[in-house]
Structure formats: structure tokens, C-alpha cells
Amino acid sequence: MKISIITATYNSGETIRDTLESVLSQTYPDFEHIIVDGKSSDNTIAICREYEKKYNGRLKIVSEKDKGIYDAMNKGLIMCTGDIVGILNSDDFYSNSNVLLTIADEFGRNDIDAVYGDIHFVVPDELTKCVRYYSSRFFQSWMMVFGYQLAHPSFYCRRECYEKYGTFDISFKIAADFENMLRLIYLNNIRTCYIPMDFVTMRQGGASTNGILSHKNIIMDHYRAYRKNGVLYGYFFDIMRYPLKLGELMLSKTFPWIYGPKLDEH
């Protein structure tokens, strides 16, 4: 079972090495890594080329102008040849070396379309310190009406689902991942499975974690997603994602051995 990993890059020279190293550290060998670069002006592509030999033919690189990160992801989806597809951002890296192996095992054991797990956030200058643990443990498809979604960087889905139900709508600037999963999970009921494992380490400061303005833009994109897909009652409930997230945070703090980080188990 081949896994395709898509990484969109743009002037990612400071972080892309960590991303590449974490992919190469995976114990599961049947993967391809697709770098879709937006014509970087720094040393991003030079670093990726440096790693080509280490990948033994499993690295694909394209660098050209695009219309943003979701356009780059769509290009990666067109290029990929794997059975399963996941997104690994250029300032993120896998939290341990068995992520792909665990994903492949889960697909091998169950008749499912997608898996998802947990992620954690770190500050850019202290990568070993977890500042927030985002667990998808509580996620259910009905929660999407309340604006709540699973941790998208942990989402690995069969390529045929994207072919059948569509890719990322690039008119959404900050929440195209939410709109895409609303189609896949909520409207079309693809079969999903949660894996209680920390998949990805994310540096804080991305487009969806960067202050009050980003949260306002997310809410507006959510409203557009509901309107586009005919989920009009989402207008009334979307704001509930914040109490849901607060409840998740309180549980992780109160019962850390159950709901909190499991960074060293795998």
C-alpha cells in the first residue's frame, strides 16, 4: 500500500530540512514525497535537491507559480500515485518514525477510507516543548456543523475519495481544508477511523493559528462552506467550536494521562 505525502512550500528554507528528515526517518518504506513549490526565491529547492539521492527515487519536486497553498495541494493530488494521501506542511514534521507504518497497518486491518490522529504545537525556537496538544479523539462527523474538525495534518485519505468527491476549493483562503472535509466526511460519509497517536509536530504561527484576524477569517470561510454545501444550519452553530475546543483543553489538562500528549509511546 503506497502512501503519498504532499508538501507545499514557499520560501521554506529555514524549516524544510526538518520536514524532509522526518519523512526519511519513517520505518514504512512504500511512500512517495511530493514537493510542490510556489517558485521560492530562497534556498528551499536547493535543499530539496540535496535530499533527492537519499530518497532513492521517492521524491518528486515541482517549482512554479501557484495561486496559494491549496492550489499547490491540488497540484500534488494530481501528481500523486499512492493509494493513500496525506498533507505534511513545510514547517511541520512527523512526531515519530512510525507514523506511516501505523497508518498503513490501520488501512490493512480495516475497510476504511481515511484515518486521523493527534498533533501538537511547538514554538519555532523550542521544538521539543509542547505548548498545545490537539487531539482528534472526540471528533464525530456531526461536530462539523459546530465548526469543529479533526486535526487536518493527521488526515490520511484514499486517493479515490478525492477523485470522487473533489479536491480543495482554492477560493477559500484559510479554511479550504474544512470545506473539503465537510464534503468528504459530513456530506458523503466516508468511513473514517481515529488512531490515538501523535502524528505531527507543528510550529505555531501558521495561517490558521495566527491571531484574532485568522479566527475571523476562519469563521467567514466556514459560513461560505456551509452555504456552498447546503448545510445552512451551520450558520447558527459554528461558533460552538470554541466551547468544544475549551472543553477539550480542560480535559487534556485535568486527565493528561488519558487525553494529553503521548509523545514518547511510539
What is shown here, in short?
This protein has helices at residues 16-24, 44-55, 69-79, 99-109, 159-165, 176-187, 212-229, 234-237, 241-254, 256-259; strands at residues 3-9, 31-37, 59-63, 84-87, 92-94, 114-122, 132-134, 156-158, 192-203. With 266 residues, the protein is α/β, with parallel strands linked by helices.
The succession of helices and strands, N to C, reads EHEHEHEEHEEEHHEHHHH
What is the fold named in CATH at topology level?
Spore Coat Polysaccharide Biosynthesis Protein SpsA, Chain A
* Regions with little confidence, pLDDT below 50 for 5+ residues: none
CATH homologous superfamily, by name? Spore Coat Polysaccharide Biosynthesis Protein SpsA, Chain A
Structural class: alpha/beta
**Radius of gyration in whole Å, from Cα?**
18 Å
What report would you give on this structure?
With 266 residues, the protein is of the alpha/beta class. The protein has a single domain (3-259), classed as Spore Coat Polysaccharide Biosynthesis Protein SpsA, Chain A. It has ten helices and nine strands. It has helices at 16-24, 44-55, 69-79, 99-109, 159-165, 176-187, 212-229, 234-237, 241-254, 256-259; strands spanning 3-9, 31-37, 59-63, 84-87, 92-94, 114-122, 132-134, 156-158, 192-203. Strands 1, 2, 3, 4, 5, 6, 7, 8 and 9 form a nine-stranded mixed beta sheet that branches. The two termini are 21 Å apart.
